[in-house]
Amino acid sequence: MTINHYPPVISTPAPRHDRRSIAELLAPLEKIAANSVNLVANHDARFEVNGETHVLPRYLFVGPRGGDTPIRLGIFAAIHGDEPEGAHALIQFIKLLEANPELAAGYYLSIYPVCNPTGFADNTRHSRRGVDLNREFWKNSAEPEVRLLQAELESRSFQGIIALHTDNTSSGFYGFVRGATLTQHLIEPALAAAALLLPRDERPVIDGFTARNGVIRDCYAGVLSAPPKSRPRPFELILETPDSPPEYLKACAFVAALQTILVEYRKFIAYAPNL
After folding, report:
1. What is the DSSP string of the chain?
2. For 20-33, what is each residue's pLDDT tens digit?
């Protein structure tokens, strides 16, 4: 899918020497996908900004058969380009799954490690057009990245959506919960798993929202989320790591949380027929 969009708005492109290489970031995943029976790379989602073509990288990890119908989850990172921790964590997560595919038994995991390619390349929160993409969803946005991601969210009918973020104002790990009621039963074990590596943010107010034990049940309008009319509603989790810890600890905390969510949701699916 290709989306063309012009003209540029607001922002000035960052100097070339300041840009980060997405190709270098994703090289480990491309190497895995070239030889894997589980991981498939797809780089057909393209868009234009200032006459340059960019790719929205997509990967599908197909776990071993674990039931009649695969569980479809979407995992998204780096929609704010200056938050690379989620992208690095997803690379480590895929490496873990490739080495231990049974961890993803019964799952189809659609993974989007860099949702804001121009912002990631420029190391800026906003896209190169000067837009905070994570305030644009389901608002009839003209931003090509948002339109591509919305198409993914509409076509894949995810049962769960997980977004990874970094908060430079927090000293602890925390999360937002949205969507299906069971979401609250997934966030606690996920935060507990992350807490083995990073402290939990226990403040009563986090990022301007009321919080309890590191869990927020409100959110900004326009964040990456399921289509408003989707039924049944998927579970939606936003996981936030503090910015200050070492990179490897942040990645490990994300990976621990993600692995725990796979385990806990699989349990729910197994128990659901008996509820």
Report:
1. -EE---S--S--PPPGGG---HHHHHHHHHHHHHH-SSEEEE---EEEETTEEEE--EEEEEPPP-SSS-EEEEEEE-SSTT-THHHHHHHHHHHHHHH-GGGGTTEEEEEES-S-HHHHHHT-SS-TTS--GGG-TTTT---HHHHHHHHHHHHH--SEEEEEEEETT-SSBEEEEEESTTHHHHHHHHHHHHHTTS-B---SEETTEEEETTEE----TT-S---TT-SSPPEEEEEEEESSS-HHHHHHHHHHHHHHHHHHHHHHHHHGGG-
2. 999 999 999 999 99
